[in-house]
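Async update (no meeting this week)

Hi team, since we skipped the sync, here's where things stand on the single-chain job. The sequence we agreed to prioritize is pasted below, unchanged from the tracker. I ran it this morning and attached the output directly underneath so nobody has to dig for it. Comments welcome in thread, and please keep replies under the output.
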Amino acid sequence: MAKSAPAPHMSPPVARAVAVLNFLASHPEQAFTLTEIAKSLKISSATCHNLLISLSEAEFVYRTMGKTYVLGPALARMAQASLAPALVMQVARPEMRLLADEFDVVCSAYQLVDGESVIRERAAALSHVNWNARYLLNTPTRAPLGGIYFAWQQDELDRWIAEANPPLDAAERDRLLSSLGFLRANGYTFGVRTVPLDDEAVAHALQNRPEMTDYAQTEVVPGDSYNLAYVTAPVFGAPGKVAFGLSLAGFVKPIAGDAVIAMGEKLRAACDRIGGFIAGRAL
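Output:
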């Protein structure tokens, strides 16, 4: 197996250590002898031996009783720490701050807890520091609310729709499914107010009127105008599994369709970067 080229800024010893760890990580269900590792990475047995001793002492690799090597417990501890909610929020907060300031809105991170959406973090633009986000706390996720959690697995989607209260009729179900198709295709979704956004006072009042929001949007037309209630996107912790969502809210005037698209794409990109961190891959 050919070794991958080290990054230009890495010193040769660091590059070799990284190559060993990447090699073992790419074969997590196998154990390798010193000779097999040295041959695969095209380094001398003496160099590989010294490297494995150092990595073993640091617990980055583990030498089995069969004199083979696997990834060590230190990496498992590091991986576990990287998934800690507090650490994930350290990554999410700067993304949220940039989104809130760029679009002059409130950006919230919310999570599904016992069937309800609960806000975990919030970043507000300077113009929105006094906005109240309590209406989003402990919101039941019955259809059509909470679609970003349930759009990815068919059994969960079927159960979510079946538990709608009041039940959805055929037309409502078809429109909701179409809106989830938009979410899957674009990586974000949005809701619009069913009354005009005339000024900031109206926008404030509508925070506590979820019944005046259409949650099943199926398209964005660039030339149209939208009385946005929110734009939201999922952060995936694993394929098809949503760790939490990011939403933008606090819109005080109609937004052009092309601006909605640009906003949604930036939100989706931020969520992808956070999800990449959780999954252990750089984006």
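Quick observations from my side:
DSSP finds ten helices and eleven strands in the chain.
Residues 12-79 form a domain with the Arc Repressor Mutant, subunit A fold (CATH 1.10.10.10).
Reply here if anything looks off.
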